[in-house]
Amino acid sequence: MTTARRSDATRAAILDAARERFAADGYERATIRAIARDAGIDPSMVMRYYGNKEGLFAAASTIELELPALGSLPARHVGATLVEHFLDRWERDDVLTGLLRVGVTNAAAAERMRTIFAEQLGPVALGVCPDPADAPRRAALVASQILGMALARYVLRVPPAVEMPREDVIAWLGPTVQRYLTAEAP
To answer: Which residue has the higher pLDDT, 110 or 106?
Structure first.
């Protein structure tokens, strides 16, 4: 195995271990030593590649929301499609849940979450809202609903939110997200 391949494999092992550790322990309790142990390497290698815990967290929390292309959908289905997509993401991505959990108490994680939503949800809002100047505000309103449900359902595990069938979550939140994105401004 070449040095470059070994380096890539080491980086990948570190990031995998970091994502799992940050998701399980949160930012504050996760340690470089524990992450290195999980990756099967010396802690100095983590520092070599990522500099410090903040650099590692930033690299480990790079998340692509994989938002669906909404251009081909009838406008009236945008809200429900987004809610369904986010439910799928939260249910299969512990890193996203971990980032939300950490973002509640850690400024770096909160900034990372804000950046992800602004850069990835912002263009979606811009593409469907009636006034492009209003897109950032509309994206923020959508994020409030998506993140609020994720916090209640996947982090705090509020029983009625956890027990609610997916179809009901989509039926309740879809129209709200739809209105935020496509209705005339008040």
So the answer is: 110
